[in-house]
Amino acid sequence: MRRLARSRRRHITETLQAAEAPRWVSQVPSRGRALALPAALAGVLLLAACGQPPWNNPYPASQAGEKILYGAFTERPNHMDPVRSYSSNEYAFIAQIYEPPLQYHFLKRPYTLVPLTAEAVPEPTYLDADGNPLPADTDPARIAVSEYLIRIRPGIRYQPHPAFAKDADGAYLYHHLSRAEIGRLNTLSDLPETGTRELTAEDYVCEIKRLAAPWLHSPIAGLMGEHILGFKAYSKRLNEAAPASVNGERPFFDLRQMDFPGAEVVGRYSYKVRIKGRYPQFVYWLAMPFFAPMPWEAEALTDQPGMAANNITLDWYPLGTGPFMLTENNPNMRMVLARNPNFHGETYPTEGMPGDRAAGLLADAGKPLPFVDRAIYSLEKESIPYWNKFLQGFYDTSGISSDAFDQAVRFNAAGEAGLTEDMKAKGIRLTTAVNASIWYMGFNMLDPVIGGDSERARLLRQAISIAVDFDEYISIFANGRGVQGQGPIPPGIFGHRDGEAGIDPYVFDWVNDHPQRKSIEDARALMVDAGYPGGRDPATGRPLSIYYEAMDAGPDGKAQLNWMRKQFSKLGIELIVRATDYNRFQEKIREGTGQVFMWGWNADYPDPENFFFLLYGPNRKIDGGENAANYQNPELDRLFEQMKDMPDGPARQAVIDRMTEIVRHDAPWSFGFYPESFSLSHQWIGNVKPNLMANNTLKYISLEPGIREQLRTAWNPPILWPVGVIVAVLAVGAVPAVVIARRRERSAAL
Length: 750
What we know:
By secondary structure, the chain is of the alpha+beta class. It is 28% helix and 17% strand. Strands 1, 15, 18, 19, 20, 23, 24, 25 and 26 form a nine-stranded mixed beta sheet that branches. Strands 8-7-9-11-10 form a five-stranded antiparallel beta sheet, with helices on one face.
């Protein structure tokens, strides 16, 4: 599960063309001497006359017309190894390279799992404690094991890689390098020979075993330990059997030699995963890079002593079967994905949602993927240079920073977002989507003032939920990019309700077909009922003091904290801010010492269980879980255990409705808002449709490089007046020299 924080997707890059030094040329006519002009200036004039590519193009001229997607990244990725990666900035790369057995359909909504390397989406077989099969509709209490049989398609091959290189006798070339040979390596390309082989089921089992390897520190090891059969015991066995680290490096340990009851190879193209009890959400994990294949040869190469010191690791050089491979990893400057020549092939979807065909999203139906040959991403730490390069056509897509928002977006009278006239004139398109995530204000239910299940504390939490106006927050700090939260489940996830049936009646009224926040007078009345008239603590006669745990105190953070103080002051409450760095903030929440805080969560998979488990009692933060509010309600816990195993349908919706009502009444959260993403793309980019679950969408993007070249030239005309000024200055400055030279010529003639 991924917490929304900083770069987490989951609680919430091309070399600049070298400039040539100016070359000076002289032209000597029959009489006198002409001014010497910089060839570069003459070249600018020539470019302007001939309609050549813009002189400020940051890319080599040789790339003109190629199907290259140009983009940017703002934060360097740390992990390219799928066993460790868990951030959106990393998934942007590795999801194009690694292929788990399943993926999400690019166009269908609600989000639908479809095969990627698998032949079909697996259905579980249920077994009792004696290993006997059970019917599909059996009582979940009788299920001891859920068994998933995954069959993969034959003929899928890995990208070219030195790990597979062999000599004429079939021995691996680079698996037994000497210390001296490794010491001479700088990059993976220093191993010139490459090879490939077919993807097998064993590679998927190898990756699941890697999740359990304690030395790899997978962020989902704890969660998988709760679900995959024998996971914890296998992790312990691995720790005991694997060789110890030497000088901080652990020698290669072949995981194939140790069987694992939770993941078993059945045949060359099939394997089984066994889950404790019933956990229907496991199938969603099969669409994540954590469950992508990893060939044993990759670790045999990179785990040799000395390789890590040269950065030749799986965290730096990914190895997969996907449509792209990472050909340049320079996270301080540029990342380049190039078409995998061994890609097994895939075609663009032939069906989608109503409106997709009219929007042009099915124009490429049935065509082979991917559509681009390369994707070049440049590091852009500052938003303004990123934005300007997008407007010049040098980046194909862009988000919208707060600095550029008013330049790009306008809201109409109905509050609907649209582009400004300048953006429309450039043919830029706006795509919006409400994210499958939530930012919420949490109340620590262990706190003696704000927490607990007393009526006094509950009314206090409800009053604060009314007073903190997240509509205003969205407008001020998110440029309107968000939807006021009404419950724990965001739009697009089963269980979310829209309209009047979906509002939080403790915080909102339904007025003119729209939710309207209750008045501050209603909140103050709740404060009176809670025993805090005017926001004063009856025990002291002073304003009630509440501590707010903040993640940062930067310039933007300070403005938000000041805003938050004003919200509490509406009720007469004195808000005391305790701002710390993110690590210290996490520590406070983990120890249950905070009082009020803001945090976020982004869905790993499109299921309500992925949000309600944040409010499930046994998952409290103080017990090592993700329930940061430390909330516990026996009825909600019972309903959660029932709901999580139910198929989507009216019965599950009824249970979710009751759970939502309980949480609204108890108010362990003020539901904050569901963030909304705004993205821009140029007119030469096609097949743009937000998919908040899929990460491997680069293969669907199409582009028209010819249109891009034309518009880049039109948008970046050379500014010639400085050239004219320079020429004029040089000409005026040369006049005395010309006069003197002619006088000397006349004197010599006399």
